[in-house]
Amino acid sequence: xxxxxxxxxxxxxxxxxxxxxxxxxxxxxxxxxxxxxxxxxxxxxxxxxxxxxxxxxxxxxxxxxxxxxxxxxxxxxxxxxxxxxxxxxxxxxxxxxxxxxxxxxxxxxxxxxxxxxxxxxxxxxxxxxxxxxxxxxxxxxxxxxxxxxxxxxxxxxxxxxxxxxxxxxxxxxxxxxxxxxxxxxxxxxxxxxxxx
Length: 196
Known about the structure:
Layout: E1 3-5, E2 8-9, H1 22-29, E3 38-39, E4 63-66, H2 81-90, E5 95-100, H3 103-106, E6 121-126, H4 130-142, E7 147-152, H5 162-165, E8 170-175, H6 188-195
Parallel strand pairs: 1-4, 4-5, 5-6, 6-7, 7-8
Antiparallel strand pairs: 2-3
């Protein structure tokens, strides 16, 4: 991943993986409330912004992680998402990496011309434990995206995704632990078993 695009900021905690959210921790340090969801003024159109010489700040071929201080499919962002989709469509040369804990909302949030998905969108669900794996990956597999992945983060318990890999739809699996205040331990054995 080359860069981050946060068109909106703030989130509503949804599951056990949200308990020690890094964004809430960092917002608290800035005397902000992480549950306040707002459109980011100067960066909303970041993928379309240009340098003084007229070239895009985000170069062709780059990968952008989207909404790393929120969730792209958060209900509170419904009013801004259509414009964000338009921006992503205008930059088919950039890969947009979407991540959600809310795959149940995705189908109703796709643009009208989505079809089977756009080539430049890589869609991922986060699965912090086996319960999240069993709830979110089946929904991931039903959704119309050309590129799909799973992020086991924050990795707070042993998980198995083996039965979902046979679908052939999961291109990437990423794993990582928690940071900051209250971080729960990540056991090396969990990572090794997931890798195996």
